[in-house]
Amino acid sequence: MNDISKYQIIDDYLNNRLSREDLIAFEKQLFIDHDLAEEVRINRNLFALHETEDWDDINILNEDGIAYQEYLLSDDAKKIRTAINKASNKYKRNSITPIKRYQRYYGIAASLVLLIAFSYTFTSNQNTPENLYADYSNLSDLPSLTQRSDADKLLSDAEELFLSKQYLGAVRSLELYSEKYNSQSVNTFLYKGMCYLELEQYSNAKQIFKTLQSSDSLDKNKAYWYLALTSLKQENIANTKKTLQLIVTNSYYNHKKAEQLLAKLN
């Protein structure tokens, strides 16, 4: 089967123009020829894209979830849709002569290139430092400051202020607690450091995390993860990667998340 006759039969198959005998024979061929089956799958998706009048109805790229659906409605996606439709209109013909069918597939190939560009653009937009920080900082994952029933009210106040994003008030409550008891725990370090980080007071945040890092606490290696987040929020990718690699190599706190984040930054 040469390329032109293969494209012709794929086109006839997708448009329900095969006789019963030819349909049975072709589907048997699909069962044993995986390359042909893959070409049919790609062309079915591309035909669906060309024939869909409403962009909201396209399901080809929705398998990756709601994020793709939202992107399909964005201005960038609309520009790509316009380009795809231009390519389609240029090469699409009503005639079924072999040469004109062959030209049609050049239009489909152009559409495929645009789809690849779309996927790349979408992925690149998702992996900005700002988006990655939002995905991996997960402030609600911090352990509670009031795990003990006799926890000081200053700690409960600090946690409540932190969760309501009143970071300056949370810092003040934590400082008062430290002055009252002349001590700090790993959790108070983390809350205070994250308050400064959310306030974009990066030097203060780093100082807090580095103090934890140099302490004799058993959980001191948690500081590396938060130092990596600090560099990420500052969009210092080189330092972020360096710290994440250290976390992965030594299996420090959140080393699996560090590995995932490192892969996205690469």
Q: How would you characterize this protein structure?
A:
The chain is an all-alpha fold and about 270 residues long. The protein starts with a helix and ends with a helix. About 5% of the residues have low confidence. The radius of gyration is 28 Å and the shape is elongated. It contains 14 helices and no strands. The chain folds into two domains: about 120 residues, no CATH class; about 130 residues, Serine Threonine Protein Phosphatase 5, Tetratricopeptide repeat, CATH 1.25.40.
The number of helical elements comes to 14
Strand content bin: under 5%
The counted number of beta strands is 0
Uncertain regions spanning at least 5 consecutive residues: 52-65
Largest sheet composition: none
| CATH classification class of the largest domain | Mainly Alpha
Q: What shape does the CA trace take?
A: elongated
Name the helicity range. over 70%
Tally of domains:
2
Roughly how many Å apart are the termini?
43 Å
Structural class by helix and strand composition: mainly alpha
What is the N-to-C succession of helices and strands? HHHHHHHHHHHHHH
Radius of gyration: 28 Å
CATH fold field value of the largest domain = Serine Threonine Protein Phosphatase 5, Tetratricopeptide repeat
**CATH architecture descriptor of the largest domain:** Alpha Horseshoe
